[in-house]
Structure prediction request, 104 residues.
Amino acid sequence: MIALPALVEAALRTAELFRRAAEIARRQAELTRARARASRAVAEAEREEARLTRDPVHAAARTHRVKLLEDEARVFEGEAEVLDHEVERLLSEARTAQKRARRL
Prediction:
C-alpha cells in the first residue's frame, strides 16, 4: 500500500505537471495568433503588390496568394482557439489533482 504522504506528493506533482502543460499550450496559442497576424500582414502586402502590378498574370497570381494567406490566417486563429480550450482543460485537470491532494 502507498503511504498517504507519498500519494499526496504524487497528486501535487500531477497538478504541477498539468499547470506546466497548460502554460505551454498558452504560449503555443500566443505564437499561433502571432503567426495569423503575420499571415494577414503578408496578405496585405501581397494585395498592395497585386494592385500595383501592371502585368495582369502576375497580379492574378498575387491575388490568389492573398486568398491563400487569409485562409491560412483563419486556420491559425482556429488552432489558437482550440489551444485556449486545451489550456482550460489542463487547468481543470490541475485543480482536480490539487483537490485530490487536499482530500488525502
